[in-house]
Amino acid sequence: MEIKIKHLNKKYGKQSVLKDISLHIPVGMYGLLGENGAGKTTLMRILATMLNPSSGTIQMNGIDIKDKKEVRKMIGYLPQEFSVYPNMSVYSALEYLAVLSELPQNIRRRRINELLKQVHLEQEKNKRFKNLSGGMKRRFGIAQALLNNPQILIIDEPTAGLDPEERLRFYNLLSELAMDRIILISTHIAGDIEATCSNVAVLCSGEVIFEGQIGNLIKLGERKVYTTTLMQNELEKFKQMYHIINVHQNGTDISCRFLCGGTPQKDGAACEPTLEDSYIYLISNYKQGVK
After folding, report:
1. Where is the ABC transporter domain (predicted)?
2. pTM
């Protein structure tokens, strides 16, 4: 089971949204990380057969994406904005979507009950969709994406609007589902990728600027991340010299975490980079023309 993307391009008129994208996505959870506007949603919509590429090739388990009928049999899709008729019950909405998915009647009820149990919505099956919490709605979205028992799940910005507890519960669910299928998730939250994925691709301005294992992305930030303590009147000048990751006020002092490609002019202690640190460093260098 794999997805192979080769030299994929997408244009709207003269504007290039995706530029020569080539990726290999294996079984398990795979992260697509990038800022808003990087091209993540466009790529997800192409993989979900909702958009056609301008050029390039995509194969899903050996099947060309141009064969939409066959591809749609093997994929489930949860877009960033997802809803159903608000007054329908959870069970009725899933049943309606199952009919639209041409799920045979003799297995429909059993499949829906299995999914409600799997996504922990058994107790809410008679609740109206509009009365579900944000986390419950995302779990419902996973259930509808799993109706045809897909080999590939495509999920766009899955934790948008979720509180930390719901985010953790949601990703635990995805990790369980990823044992025997591909789960491709897109997000701009580095911590979500670090907690769940083994492999990641980073997009910036429609280009892949990194593809590989999470650990290798983190290594890019080694000897590039420092902390120092500043006085209040030093902060503005310091911002002009370095890329600030975060600051924390402690009385009259300011604790500052920052990026530096060489040796800082002010005394600073090198620290172990997180995925977010290395991601910010990678994006920053790309935008400065350092590739």
Report:
1. 3-230
2. 0.86
- What lies within 8 Å, CB to CB, of 4 at 6+ separation is 23, 24, 25, 57, 58, 59
Among 154, 188, 212, the domain boundary falls at: 212
Q: What is the rounded distance in angstroms from the CA atom of residue 271 to the CA atom of residue 149?
A: 44
Distances (CA, A) of 148 to 67, 140, 144, 152: 18, 14, 8, 11
Q: What are phi and psi of 51, to 5 degrees?
A: -130, 155
Give the CA distances from residue 36 to residues 40, 77, 156, 188, in Å, rounded to whole numbers and listed in that order: 8, 20, 12, 7
181, 212, 243: which is the final residue of a domain?
212
Q: Would you say 129 and 137 are in contact if contact means Cβ atoms under 8 Å apart?
A: yes
What is the secondary structure of 252-278 as a DSSP string? TEEEEEEE-SS--SS--EE-PPPHHHH
- Statement to judge: residues 138 and 54 lie in one domain: yes
Question: Are 26 and 1 in contact, with CB atoms under 8 Å apart?
Answer: yes
The predicted pLDDT at position 52 comes to 96
Helix, strand or coil for residue 80? coil
Residues lower than pLDDT 50 in the chain: 291
Domain limits for position 229 = 217-288
